[in-house]
Design brief:
By secondary structure, the protein is mostly helical. It is 71% helix and 2% strand. It has one domain. The protein is globular.
């Protein structure tokens, strides 16, 4: 039970990161390999704000996504807008290059050994839940991640704004005829996906060692989660991320040596049976 609960914490990170990827791919049709770098930027910015400016954890939960989302707007306007109509490979290579650039800059400044970030006082300590002593902060990670994930799903799938977003990707000229600024909508969608990654980075700062390479440790697994759930599927990314986190937790008990590869084994099995993913649309 304790491993399941810890697996749910990892699954929360998988869910919120894969959600950002799914939003960007589903609405912009871009494979954003820089997602791990934006996750890292959220954590590094939180550490920098604390050590250089004395800004605490709670303000950074809002400030970091806004700042990194603003940076995402620049990336979309200056770089990504030129590859929308090209093959997916161009967007993948562009964002991969951006990832290497960002990681290289921060690695030259802070190195790769990792920086510690203290748990906020309000969430310090742990609670005895019977079968384990659960750190309060890890419980907060699960609650915050689930709240953001399902709020995002609701906005995209159940609101008028979400219908505009979906329609804008299918038939932008028709949506523009109704007076909607589609290019601005696309830009803000990318910024929102990037902001989700930065929010996950803020959540991860007290749990993981803040490092310029911390995104590398998660992004390949997160891509596997998106593929299993179905590229562009919002609910698929959320449920698959949480589910694979739980499976990973069980594997650490049953067969620890396989815990690092069980996600990719699941990906191979799912793609062999259903190439579009568990929740993806068959073409």
């Amino acid at each position: 039970m304790s491993q399941l609960l810890l697996g749910l914490v990892n699954g929360s990170f998988y869910a919120i990161l894969s959600l950002g990827l799914a939003v960007i791919f589903g609405l912009l049709n871009v494979i954003n390999f820089a997602h791990g770098a934006f996750f890292m930027l959220g954590a590094v910015l939180t550490w920098m704000a604390s050590n250089y400016l004395g800004v605490g954890y709670w303000p950074m939960l809002l400030a970091a996504p806004l700042v990194i989302g603003g940076f995402g707007i620049l990336v979309e306007r200056l770089l990504l807008r030129w590859v929308y109509k090209l093959d997916h490979l161009y967007g993948l290579l562009l964002t991969l290059g951006l990832t290497l650039l960002l990681e290289g800059v921060f690695r030259s400044i802070y190195g790769v050994s990792g920086l510690s970030y203290d748990t906020p006082d309000l969430l310090a300590g742990a609670t005895d839940v019977g079968f384990m002593v659960l750190p309060n902060y890890r419980a907060w990670v699960v609650v915050a991640s689930l709240a953001v994930c399902f709020a995002t799903w609701y906005v995209i799938e159940r609101t008028k704004l979400g219908s505009y977003l979906r329609a804008g990707t299918e038939n932008p000229k028709m949506v523009e005829a109704f007076g909607v600024n589609v290019p601005l909508m696309v830009t803000l969608t990318y910024a929102f996906g990037v902001a989700l990654a930065a929010f996950a980075g803020v959540l991860a700062a007290p749990v993981m060692q803040v490092s310029p390479l911390m995104g590398q440790n998660l992004i390949i697994t997160v891509f596997a989660v998106v593929v299993i759930g179905g590229m562009g599927s919002i609910m698929g990314s959320i449920l698959t991320g949480l589910g694979l986190g739980l499976i990973e937790g069980v594997t650490k008990v049953v067969y620890p040596e396989a815990s690092a590869t069980v996600v990719f084994v699941m990906m191979v099995l799912v793609l062999a049976v259903r190439p579009s993913g568990l929740f993806g649309k068959e073409k």
